[in-house]
Amino acid sequence: MRIGLVGYGKMGKEIEQIALERGHQIAWKVDRENPLKDQDTDVDMLIEFTRPEHAVGHIKWSLEKQLPIVVGTTGWNSYLSEVSKLAERLDGSLLHASNFSVGVNIFFRINELLARLMTSHTNYRASIEEIHHTEKIDAPSGTAISLANGILSNNENYLSWVCGENEIPHVNDQQLGVTAYRVPNVPGTHKVEYKSAIDTIEIKHEAHSRKGFALGAVLAAEWLQGKKGVYTMRDVLKD
Question: 92 and 35 in one domain?
Answer without folding.
Answer: yes
